[in-house]
Amino acid sequence: MQYDLVVIGSGWAGFNAALRAKELGFKVAVIEKKQLGGTCLNLGCIPTKALIQSAKVYSLSKKAKRFGIEISAPLLNFSEVQKRKELIVGQLRSGISSMLGGIDIFNGQASIVSAGTVEVGGEKLDTRFILIACGSKPYVPEGLISGSKKFITSDEMLELKGLPKSLLIVGGGVVGSEFAGLFSSLGCQVSLVELMPQLLPGLDEEVAKKLEGIFKKKGVKVSTNTDARAARAEDYEIALCCIGRIPDTSRLCLDKLGIRLEKGKIVTDEHLLTSIPNIYAAGDCNGRVMLAHAASYQGILAVENMANPANPRKADRLIPSCIFTDPEISSVGLTEKEARAAGVEVRVDKFDFLGSGMARILDETEGFIKIVSNKKTGQILGSSIIGARATELISTLAVAIQHKLKTAELKRIVFPHPTLAEGIGEALKKSDGV
Questions:
Q1: What pTM value is reported for the model?
Q2: Three-state DSSP class for 2?
Q3: What is the structure's pLDDT at 282?
Q4: What's the longest Cα–Cα distance across the chain?
Q5: What is the pLDDT of residue 145?
Q6: Which CATH number applies to 2-137+246-307: 3.50.50.60, 3.40.190.10, 3.30.565.10, 3.40.50.1820?
Q7: Which CATH code fits 327-427?
Q8: Is 96 helix (H, G, I), strand (E, B) or coil?
């Protein structure tokens, strides 16, 4: 069968690419070896955040008296928590299936036979373009075993039938930190081990230090600068490996085809083209930015570049990062450390949520907004936020940085009161300019 585009993978990159291709009049096929929606919907963003919201409601109910509400001690029904998660995932998966109407869906393992042919289930699909959007999988290094205890990954963690009494997490990055916050809130004894000097390596150091302090207040045992082999996994009911993710490309036969790889990642140019002219790669498999919203952006951009090869656009958009710990964390642009390392004379403006009326109303005063700018020009370079609804607040700063606004321009915005967002304006009150 002849297609304009065959998409391998139906995660956020593949799904959004297929929809955009259909809008542009392409005849499209999507190949998915598991379930529609890929990692984000089935084993990542959506199920984890559904569980985190249940944990947040549970935590809030336990302090209802502080809001003047008397209720009996809340009881956690973990099986119902899991049922709610599955319901949400199922509803969204059904929506994806409906939206892909008019696109041929093939379930099975894809194999790229040539630059113009993809095989699935013994059927060969001829195509003008191929988009590889096969996503990623958890990385568990060989030998990460203590005693007789084998580590599980986030995939298995999401399918637990009961709440563990104790949990060892190896890896204090995004996934490890989210699981630590989630299960400690549900009453599990959690120990978190990170090899690097701070949690969330690569993020703002003040934010990481703040999160570590909050975790310790909640009873999470945090050990940084610690090798996983020093942890006694056999002392815990469950041992979870959250060291990272790697592209899930092993069964696509890319090396035989001549597609260039580096450490398992598909190498693409600035337009998301691989080393073969009509084959593109988007999302986690190219290793640029392993975030669902980045994957969506890349998938759409790749298709638009296929449709307009004479004037392709670069994959150069600013990508914010969101972490759903409690409190939430978000960042965009440069950290203070990165800006200084680039030789910029830096100005840092901060606002602590202790001074926010809305944060006090919500009883969520932990955290701060931090804005990094060029001291000489005033241009905003980056922002890091830890606090209530940080994942929503960061979009304002993303717009400011994307459009190269200066602190004087952003501080002219009249933020509504009482909101958490007005903390952005408060942070800049003492910055230069009117």
A1: 0.94
A2: strand
A3: 98
A4: 67
A5: 62
A6: 3.50.50.60
A7: 3.30.390.30
A8: helix
